[in-house]
Amino acid sequence: MNCVWNSAKAREAEEAFHIRGGELSSVAAAFRFDIEQGLKQNGLSSLRMLPSYVALPKGTETGDYLALDFGGTNVRVLHLRLYGKGRWEIIKKAAAPLRCAIYDYIGKDTPAEELFDFLAGLVDSALDGDNQTPCILGHTFSFPSEQDSLDDAKLIIWTKEFAVQGVEGKYVNELLRRALVRHGFSNVTPVAVVNDTVAVLLAAAYAAEDVYIGSIYATGHNVCYLENFGGRSPKMILNMESGGFSKLVPNVFDTALDARSEKPGEQRMEKMTSGRYLGELYALAVESCLGLDEGTVQAFSGEELSMILSEGAEKVLAFRGIEGLSEEELSQAEALAEAVCRRSARLVAAEFTGTLWHLAEGGMILPQRIAVEGSLYENVPFLQAALHDALVELLSSEAKNVEIRTVEDGSALGAAIAACLAEKN
Length: 425
Ligand code: BGC
Prior knowledge:
The protein is an alpha/beta fold. 43% of the residues lie in helices and 19% in strands. The chain folds into two domains: 1-52 and 198-408, Hexokinase, domain 1; 63-194, ATPase, nucleotide binding domain (Nucleotidyltransferase, domain 5, 2-Layer Sandwich). Beta-D-glucopyranose binds next to helix 5 and strand 10.
């Protein structure tokens, strides 16, 4: 590719991703405002504030459960054994990508039955074909869904560019139950559906105290928290669907990305923060520096962004045919990747801060942990540092009361805990 890098455009693009301290604080305040508006009345807020019908576990939950973890690029079914007090083990695991060279269970040409048959096939693998022994299944379904009890959830709208036909508006455990029966697995009973943020919070609270906020920072992004409804009991976890938060000022790249996405106008926060989109934003910014038409540079993956941040931009750009940049141009390309990622981390910090302010009810932020799971957050150390710095900037000395704790396998473990809680109720 004939590459002429425009340094002025690069500086402009970098600036477009910059959020100043005062603006960040306003985002956090607007986020808190939307939480409180959303609690008053649906439709007053850009946050969906979806009840999960589950409270925190006591840590005494035990038993064998199947956990279906569905919602990212891979789907997993795990047979888990809970021992209580945060102890658990994986007995068996089956996993597969939802899209590969020979099939696609994400796109709009896939009917619902095919997707759920694929999920039932994974249950079959996790059980080694055992269609006799009774099994209780918890389902982590990582999309905005409406619930009126823990046992099922109706998909409101697909996110993360999923487009399978015939699932929006349907109850997903019902679709799963039917697929399991089609596959001869009437012994498997799905009893609970939780969002992945809720699952992560359940998993963290299974092992530790003082954790009230859960978040996913991966292909998708979202935050949930334990709402105390003015001190009334029982407290319930609310899935905010924070990826839909919209009180943000998009730059030209955000606008271009949104316009060509599956759902323009939706998930504005998620499109500025999550792994599904950061590499695409970066590609759009690189195109503008090179004066190329939109769509010429293929979206970068999370790993590629991570590589640019740790080893420099040269190799990754060369892989896209972008070669011959000077030292200075390469460092501009690196600064641009940093700016895209830093903005993401700062916005996530603003969401956490808005939630902490809401929970503190105008008082001091109490010592607590925030549970986070996600490939993006775990694999990009730059993001962890940028998030921490932004929390200090927003919360000053109170930031020391907040520890970000990563949770491994939280979305699967949380499904098993939810199944246990549903069964015991
Ligand atoms: C979904 C959320 C989910 C998040 C992380 C978003 O696209 O709307 O429900 O929690 O991704 O997986």
